[in-house]
Amino acid sequence: MKNDVTFYLLENKLDPHRAHEAMIKEYLESGQPIPYYIKGVKDFIKISQQLAIELDRKEQMAKRDREKAEQKETIINYILNLSKDEIKDIYKKYKDVVSYSDKLVLHDVYVMKYTDYEMSKKDIDQHMINVFTRIYKEQLQPV
Fold this sequence. Notes:
Mean pLDDT: 91
Order of helices and strands: HHHHHH
Radius of gyration: 28 Å
Largest sheet: none
Helix content: over 70%
C-alpha cells in the first residue's frame, strides 16, 4: 500500500487529495478495481505526512554535511595560509597545553612552514584538521 500511495504522492508533489484523485482516475480509466488495501484519502494524508518528515530529515542531514564540508575547507585554508610567525606563535602557545600527539601535529606544521615546504591539501589529515579546529575556534573567542 505504501509503495502505491508514495508513487502517486511523489507525482503530485505530496498533495494527498490530488494524489488520491489521480489514483482513482487512473484505475477508473484502465477499468481495474481500486485496490482493497487503500482505504481512501486518509492513507494518502498519513503517508504524505511521513514522507514530508522523511524528506525534511534528509534535507537537514544534507545541510549539515554541507556545513561540515565548508568548515573543513575553512580549516584547511587556515592551515595552508599560516605564516611562519603565526605557526611559531601557535606552537609556543600550545606546545605545553595539548596532548603529545597534538603537539606532534603542531610540530609537523611548524617544520613544514619553516623549511618552506609547499603544503597542499593532501598533506593535511583529519587529526591535523581536528587540532587546528580547536585552535581556530579559540582564536575567534574574545578574550
